[in-house]
């Protein structure tokens, strides 16, 4: 048992020592209000598995969620966070998918973005995401956001 714990501790510490983490914020440009920035901004934390894949969670802002009307937002008002996976196509372009923890396939959103280093490890990342599933009127709600990321 002690050998298993020691092995697990060594593996975990080596993962943390070589890990790269990312903190993100997606500003909603349509409803941006500097006084209520936390209501329209989604904050996230990701773990970079390798040069191409990142996984993490996004904490949703208190305001209307991505691409939703007030009525649609009322249907799942208790959604606090979403899980995301990100694939870096190359140094600048990335593809992303995120979903809620409930009704995984019904709430799946796909998107793409462009990432460029603004200063050191600080990145500006404009991105567009849209629902995979069409709503009742056969439309896929989409949203353009200005992402800010810090990688450490």
Major β-sheet strand ordering: 1-2-3-4-5-6-8-9
What number is the mean pLDDT?
81
Q: Count all strands and give the number.
A: 9
Tell me the radius of gyration: 17 Å
Distance between the termini: 34 Å
Compressed to H and E, one letter per element, the order equals HEEEHEEEEEE
**Binned strand content:** over 45%
The CATH architecture term is Beta Barrel
Helix content: 10-25%
Based on Cα principal axes, name the global outline.
Answer: globular
CATH class: Mainly Beta
**How large is the count of helical segments?**
2
* CATH fold type: Lipocalin
- Structure class: mainly beta
Ranges where pLDDT stays below 50 over 5 or more residues in a row are: 69-77
How many distinct folded domains? Answer: 1
Largest sheet: 8 strands, antiparallel, barrel
Characterization of this structure:
The chain is mainly beta and 152 residues long. It has 2 helices and 9 strands. It has helices at residues 2-17, 70-75, and strands at 20-28, 41-48, 53-59, 81-88, 93-100, 109-114, 116-119, 122-131, 142-151. Strands 1-2-3-4-5-6-8-9 form an 8-stranded antiparallel barrel.
Question: What are the salient characteristics of this protein?
Answer:
mainly beta, Lipocalin, 8-stranded antiparallel beta barrel, 2 helices, globular
Write the SSE topology.
Layout: H1 2-17, E1 20-28, E2 41-48, E3 53-59, H2 70-75, E4 81-88, E5 93-100, E6 109-114, E7 116-119, E8 122-131, E9 142-151
Antiparallel strand pairs: 1-2, 1-9, 2-3, 3-4, 4-5, 5-6, 6-8, 7-8, 8-9
């Amino acid at each position: 048992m002690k050998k298993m714990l020691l092995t697990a501790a060594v593996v975990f510490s080596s993962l943390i020592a070589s890990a790269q983490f990312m903190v993100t914020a997606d500003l909603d440009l349509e409803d941006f209000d500097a006084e209520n920035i936390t209501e329209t901004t989604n904050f996230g934390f990701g773990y970079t598995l390798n040069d191409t894949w990142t996984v993490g969670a996004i904490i949703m802002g208190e305001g209307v969620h991505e691409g939703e009307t007030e009525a649609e937002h009322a249907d799942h008002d208790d959604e606090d966070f979403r899980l995301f996976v990100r694939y870096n196509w190359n140094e600048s372009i990335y593809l992303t998918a995120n979903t809620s923890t409930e009704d995984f396939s019904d709430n799946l959103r796909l998107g793409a973005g462009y990432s460029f280093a603004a200063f050191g490890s600080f990145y500006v990342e404009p991105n567009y995401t849209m629902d995979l599933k069409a709503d009742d009127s056969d439309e896929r709600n989409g949203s353009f956001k200005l992402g800010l990321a810090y990688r450490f």
